[in-house]
């Protein structure tokens, strides 16, 4: 409900053009885009769609690492020849998702996780972008540093204060300089900016924690309500 105390869980690309984004209070979203249509979420439906989505991916390779409900890394090494090429395999994945779930999917193809993630983000909402092995640095270089996974607002501000605005400039920065400002994370930034990521696709294990939160329409100190 636009007048409630909830927040935007997700915004369509049309709504984003008006400044709406995930986590924004509904009142603010309604003010910025009065013509917006607000739809109440249904986690059971999302969970069902997610399970079907992951099942489709698992049909192409057993080496699957889910990253939330609607995103995953898939190592298809050795399986791509079945479809002629990894590009054709990605097209087949997108087509099955479209046919069976009625959903669009973006796909990033690369030799490592960090570059595949960036490629996928750049190809949203329904694209396919492949970065050939060896072309990772040149692909990343012109992009703003904020496009690199793991760089939030705070890190971006520090980098810009150092005169580092693009991923290429980040990769050209001496490792010692980055470590002096970011500690051990400086090396991760340096390697990621160079398109180097040795992380393997890891199969999901048991959940380490489970959490849930509820936003009430009004503040309350009623313990019986809170415990219900």
From TrEMBL:
Cellular-component GO terms for this entry: cytosol
A GO biological-process term: DNA replication
Domain called UmuC: residue spans: 1-152
Cellular compartment(s): Cytoplasm
Keyword Chloroplast: no
Pfam hit, one: IMS_HHH_1
Gene3D superfamilies: 3.30.70.270, 3.40.1170.60, 5' to 3' exonuclease, C-terminal subdomain
The UniProt record lists the keyword Transmembrane: no
Molecular function via GO: DNA binding; DNA-directed DNA polymerase activity; metal ion binding
Key words of the record: Cytoplasm, DNA damage, DNA repair, DNA replication, DNA-binding, Magnesium, Metal-binding, Nucleotidyltransferase, Transferase
Primary localization: cytoplasm
SUPFAM superfamilies per record: DNA/RNA polymerases (SSF56672)
NCBIfam families: PRK02406.1
Protein name as catalogued: UmuC domain-containing protein
Annotated organism of origin: marine sediment metagenome
């Amino acid at each position: 409900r636009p007048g409630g105390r909830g927040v935007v869980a997700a915004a369509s690309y049309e709504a984003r053009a008006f400044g709406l984004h995930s986590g924004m209070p509904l009142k603010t979203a309604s003010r910025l885009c009065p013509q917006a249509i607000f739809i109440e979420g249904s986690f059971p439906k999302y969970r069902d769609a997610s399970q079907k989505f992951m099942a489709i991916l698992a049909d192409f390779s057993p080496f699957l690492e889910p990253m939330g409900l609607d995103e995953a890394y898939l190592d298809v090494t050795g399986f791509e020849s079945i479809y002629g090429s990894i590009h054709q395999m990605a097209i087949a994945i997108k087509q099955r998702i479209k046919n069976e779930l009625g959903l669009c999917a973006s796909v990033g193809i690369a030799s490592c996780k960090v570059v595949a993630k960036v490629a996928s983000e750049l190809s949203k909402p329904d694209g396919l972008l492949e970065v050939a092995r060896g072309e990772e640095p040149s692909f990343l270089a012109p992009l703003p540093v904020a496009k690199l996974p793991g760089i939030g607002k705070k890190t971006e501000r520090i980098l810009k204060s150092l005169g580092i605005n693009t991923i290429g400039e980040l990769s050209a920065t001496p490792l010692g300089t980055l470590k002096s400002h970011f500690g051990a994370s400086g090396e991760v930034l340096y390697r990621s900016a160079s398109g180097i990521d040795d992380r393997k696709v890891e199969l999901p294990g048991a959940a380490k924690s489970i959490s849930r939160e509820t936003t009430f329409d009004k503040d309350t100190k009623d313990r019986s309500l809170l415990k219900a």
